[in-house]
Amino acid sequence: MAIEKFQSVESPAVPLPIENVDTDQIIPARFLKATTRQGFGENLFRDWRYDKHNNPIKDFVLNNKSFSGTILVAGKNFGSGSSREHAAWAIHDYGFKVVVSSFFADIFKNNALNNGLLPVQVSGKFLEALFKAIEKDASTLISVDLEEQRISIPASGESEHFEINPYKKACLLNGYDDIDYLLSIKDKIVQYEKSRS
Amino acid sequence: MAGKTLFDKIWDAHVVEEIKGGPSVLYIDRHLVHEVTSPQAFAGLDKRGISVFRPEQTIATPDHNVPTINQHLNIKDELSRFQVNKLTENCKKHGIALYGLNHPFHGIVHVMGPQLGITQPGLTMVCGDSHTSTHGAFGSVAFGIGTSEVEMVLATQCILQPKPKKMRITVDGELSTGVTAKDVVLYIISKISASGGTGYFIEYAGSAIRSLSMEGRMTVCNMSIESGARGGLIAPDETTFEYIKGREFAPSGADFDRAVERWKRLKSDADALFDKELHFDAADIEPMITYGTNPGMGAKITDRIPAVEDIDPATRESYKKALAYMDFEAGSPIAGRKVDYIFVGSCTNGRIEDLREVARFVKGKRKADHVTAWIVPGSKQVEEQAHREGITETLEAAGFKLRQPGCSACLAMNDDKIPEGMLAVATTNRNFEGRQGPGARTMLASPLTAAVAAVTGKVTDPRDLL
Questions:
Q1: For B335-378, how does the pLDDT look when each residue is reduced to its tens digit (9 = 90+)?
Q2: Which residues in chain A are contacts of B430 at CB distance < 8 A?
Q3: Same domain, B267 and B365
Q4: Which of A36, A83, A192 sits opposite B145 (nearest CB)?
């Protein structure tokens, strides 16, 4: 089963300059009771986004109409904590295609990649530049080119190369699915099992 | 050539194929499944029209959303009930062993696996839960995965995984009175931060680690993920073999002896190279507690909360946000704060040894009137052993409430929530904002420190009362 193909994105960005954004903030545990992958975007950052009476909290960036776009730019160590893939589903379901940070938690990174959500790890300096550019002008476009592995701010000409595992890159560009690949080498897996017994 | 680390030995023996420039195809020996992170994976199999490849290597139990009272009744919450029923349905359909509510083996997956002897040295183990790192205490390579990866394991018994780097953390020396395994791991995380382990798999070594019981070692490995590390492991030794012996799914008789011979070889070579090595002195470790909103924000219980000026300017805003959530003042002493709740339980500290520790301290004492004290055993077996050993009686006499097994207030998916604004000393693993319920404030500590706080009604250095 193919996943959504990813090539490049050019969009304004939503800034979240907070460090250690854990998966409990991205999607609190009480919203994990669904048995499908859809609909989690509604509760993305639930407790930062809504108060206890379900009224939007004005200060939170997702409630600020000046910010929009398909790129989320967040502080260091994004996605720490629980392995819940629901966190990646929620961000993707909300409409983001890219998350930028200077550091990602391992499990979150894998989960994002398995769902066509591109985690772009940049230097602390470039992250600062992104926050500054967005602060100055919320409509600043950010461009992410997966083929070239480059993230840039076209208006200022600032840009940076980012790393991605070549296998995962090919999967995203072509919409390949890991499970299809594993199923295609089942003979090899059976052979491995035999070699151990 | 340098020798190999224990992690390398186990990992390399499980590689089915290396993808050029990509991850390894890693074979998984044991797969644990619970109700929350599996339904979408089973649905994926259905969509592909395939069945579980090796059902006998997967074991399931519902733990995250289950109620901890009246487990003999139908689950009241509709969504939770549906999710638990879905697990039952999926296990039945695919021939997977399920230890459901009221089954004598039911419990938190990471308490259930080890106590049944499912967890063994040298194995690869995964579960759709980040605290799968717990099983590393037995010298296995165990780590948490996402739901897409759960589907991979169900479909092929393999996952695609980049190999992490290796870190060794050595803690030498003798732990002093009042200092437990939980303090050791909170100390380590306070030193390396909540992201210091990211990208690594940790091996814990040294005489202080060796001196820990299996329960203590599980507590340490359990919280590896709180430093960002994918997992943590400890080379197996006599303590490990003694724990496994005689358990339900452990090898027995001559098979056990042969297994032990094999397990004894599971250790890092003397000349093995690690990507990072850290050393700590056990004598420097004191009872620890967290004061912030990530597990790296911990300190000696006798310390003060760091002043804002002492925090790296780049992270000051996040620091201030954390203290504002906790309603704590920078520079103020940690001890002495009034505590509203104490919670003993979870895959970190919900084992029999943890309950024994609490009971030993509270015997003949009474909890402070204003404190609500919840004890949630990690499994049915722990619950029953607590009854047999008279622990239940002791705890109830002290005013503690014993509930039924499950993850409970560790992540507050069920009704066990710490009310908004209340301060809890919890033996769990995460002090994130709202983790124990919207607006709940959590301080992570050992079962002993939690028990002491319940009795005095405030954050207290346990050594003052020992």
A1: 999 999 999 999 999 999 999 999 999 999 999 999 999 999 99
A2: 22, 24, 81-82
A3: no
A4: A83
How many other C-beta atoms lie within 10 A of the C-beta of residue B252?
A: 13
Contacts of B183 (CB under 8 A, 6+ apart): B175, B285, B286, B287, B288, B446
A81 reaches B (C-beta below 8 A): yes
Q: What is the DSSP letter of B133?
A: G
On whether any CB of chain B is under 8 Å from the CB of A57, the answer is no
Give me the amino acid identity at B447. P
Show which of residues 169-198 on chain B sit within 8 Å of chain A, judged by CB atoms.
194-195, 198
Nearest by Cα to A177 from A118, A90, A108, A116: A116
Are residues B428 and B343 part of one domain?
yes
Does residue B317 lie in a domain region? no
- If contacts are CB pairs under 8 Å, which of residues 277-296 in chain B contact chain A? 293-294
Within-domain flag for B312? no
Q: What is the pLDDT of residue A1?
A: 67
The CATH code of the domain that includes B427 is 3.30.499.10
B132 has a pLDDT exceeding 90:
yes
Three-state DSSP state, B253? helix
Give the three-state DSSP class for B427.
coil
Phi, psi of B153 (to 5 degrees): -70, -40
Distance, in Å, from the CA atom of B360 to the CA atom of B358, rounded to the nearest integer, reads 6
Q: B458 and B351: one domain?
A: yes
Whether B269 and B344 map to the same domain: the answer is no
Query: Structural domain of residue B429, as residue ranges?
Result: 335-464
Query: Cα dist. A1→A9, A173, A179, B48, B51 in Å?
Result: 23, 15, 8, 8, 15
When divided into structural domains, chain B yields a total of 2
